[in-house]
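Practice problem: predict the structure.
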Amino acid sequence: MNIGCHVSIQGGIQKAPERASELGCEVMQTFSRPPQGGKAPELTGELIKNFKKLSTKYNVKNAYLHAPYYVNFASGNNRIRYGSVSVIRDELERGSLLGVKYVMTHLGTGKDLGHEESIKKTIGMLKKTLEGYGGETKLLLENSAGAGDIIGDDLKELSEIIKKTNNKSIAGICLDTQHSFASGYDWRDFEKTIEKIDEEIGVENIKLIHANDSQSDCGSNKDRHEHIGRGKIGIEAFKNIVAFAQSQNIDMLCETEYPEVEEDIKTLKNLR
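Answer:
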């Protein structure tokens, strides 16, 4: 398994591999477009070639794309729902051009439609997103911290969505340690937690881990990332999480603040 972090694409996505290398990354996560909205930069043939060449030069073993934050497959607004379908499909196509392994996305919130209807809508929208898609890049669904009516704080829910969408282009989930902790999965009781996760979704469906400690308490439903070992999850729990990731060959990515993220990468490498 490899360790890395989220890397800025300021100045263009082709700048990301060198930045990743400077931070000590073996793998990296980036955006391919502005995460809060706006036009996606064009991926020219030259830019794609440079991105791949520099990823090899700086020994970035895998690259991952994080989808924009505004995706909401369960919105009561048609324009937002179908816009989400369009942007995720585009991210998968862009990922395939760049040679990216996975695109990961949050699913949105069920506050407009109520819980059951929002799950049905999400499944329907994911099916539309993946209709006729044949690219190499696969989709991962990311678990949420659970504030409000956010979809995916419960891994049973993500399991149901994946099964009912029934498309091989969804590879599984990206498991965020902080989001899961905030949703009541207590990593300090590692054996019990991993057993629960295995029952709910199957550990074989964890394809990527966002390694973030937590400023907020277990079960708080607050999305508050902290540097590794400085939060409520703690270093002992991360020893177990890293050992698990290593045994399953799952890459780990930090989403903590610069410049201390460099220390987080070192800490995870030491635990490995």
